[in-house]
Design brief:
Length: 373
């Protein structure tokens, strides 16, 4: 029998112990991430009330809330009302635990471990919120950007620097590159594909009053927003031919209505938004602006640049575009997604950033050294 030195055996046991601790703690944090994913887009407190069933509202007992194990023991059902519990809860806990363990195995006890564990958890929240709600919370994107700048200033080694000023500078250059590159992509995308004509068989009603818009198609809850929040670019507009309605005392039937971020035009008349009379109209076809990419994606790339520098921005942009295209085409091919409908881009940016953390430098070096014949 081969005998291992006692010191080596002890060292291995300690490493296994701390690996288990990191995994378990990652799962516990993953349980909290599920709270954030559910409540943040609904503008609910992430502190109160405590964990409860979202169907029957009953508070969960402690043994209903054990990460990973409780979902398996309950077979994905509420212990009180029997309602299905989304497998997303289990997936998020497992992903966060697994990624934290992978970070521990790669970086060990280091500033990178703490920084990237925070980033991974933030990005998992952003990924799953974006998948369901098509939004990326500022707490994830801007919070990640600020955290990246602070970490790189305090631990300049994260930017391959030896002093805090260089670490800070490289982080700021990275976030500027991330925001700038993706904002340019968004600007050109909106210029080319930023408008779409929607058909409403039963008609859609539109109200413009004091620079606020309200759309009601009779199917979903009416939405009211400030014009400046809907028409964010000078190229954005809402245009339609009214079938009925009024602007002030004027009948709108048959007239072309155009709304921009600055003014309202009806037929040959024009008003600035601040002076425009109340408009109420019904139309069956309406041209609405659409974003080729949300501002949340731009801010998400800023966070990546702040943590990893400008090179990570280019890598993430290329890989996320490739991943998004492949998955999008597969979904359309299998009729799981309709052509022309939006696909959230944030999850692909997050996935590409995770690849960068573990393999980015090696993959970049391999691509640069790849022989071209």
């Amino acid at each position: 029998m081969v005998e291992f030195p006692a010191a080596a055996t002890s060292s291995e046991s300690v490493f296994v112990f701390w690996s288990a601790v990191v995994f378990v703690f990652g799962a516990v944090v993953g349980s909290f991430l599920n709270v954030c994913i559910h409540r943040m887009p609904r503008e609910l407190s992430i502190v109160r009330p405590g964990s409860h069933c979202t169907h029957c509202g009953k508070p969960l007992r402690w043994y209903h809330n054990i990460p990973l194990l409780s979902w398996l023991a309950l077979r994905g059902r509420c212990a009180f009302c029997g309602a299905a519990i989304s497998p997303t809860y289990f997936i998020v806990e497992l992903l966060n635990a697994g990624l934290w363990l992978a970070l521990w195995l790669k970086f060990g006890p280091s500033p990178q471990l703490a920084a990237y564990a925070l980033l991974v958890s933030l990005f998992l929240v952003g990924m799953f919120v974006d998948l369901e709600h098509y939004i990326l919370p500022d707490e994830v994107t801007l919070g990640g950007t600020v955290a990246g700048v602070i970490f790189c200033a305090v631990f300049p080694l994260m930017q391959d620097a030896t002093d805090w000023t260089t670490g800070l500078l490289r982080s700021v250059v990275g976030l500027a590159a991330g925001g700038g590159v993706l904002y340019a992509v968004r600007w050109f995308g909106n210029l080319l594909f930023g408008r779409k004509v929607h058909d409403f068989e039963k008609g859609v009603s539109l109200v413009l009053d004091q620079a606020r818009l309200r759309l009601d198609d009779g199917e979903e809850k009416p939405e009211e927003e400030a014009v400046k929040d809907v028409l964010t670019s000078k190229h954005d507009r809402i245009q339609f031919q009214a079938t009925s309605g009024r602007v002030g005392e004027q009948n709108l039937a048959g007239l072309i209505v155009r709304i921009t971020g600055a003014d309202l035009t009806v037929g040959g008349q024009r008003w600035t938004l601040g002076e425009a009379p109340r408009l109420e109209a019904v139309a069956h076809k309406i041209e609405l602006p659409r974003d080729a990419m949300g501002l949340g994606d731009v801010k998400l790339m800023m966070a990546i640049g702040a943590f990893f520098g400008w090179a990570s921005v280019l890598f993430t942009l290329v890989l996320s575009s490739l991943l998004g295209s492949i998955v999008g085409l597969l979904l359309i091919a299998f009729r799981a997604h309709q052509w022309g409908r939006p696909i959230p881009y944030g999850p692909y940016i997050v996935a590409a950033s995770f690849v960068w953390i573990f393999f980015g430098t090696d993959l970049t070096q391999w691509c640069l050294n790849f022989p071209i014949r």
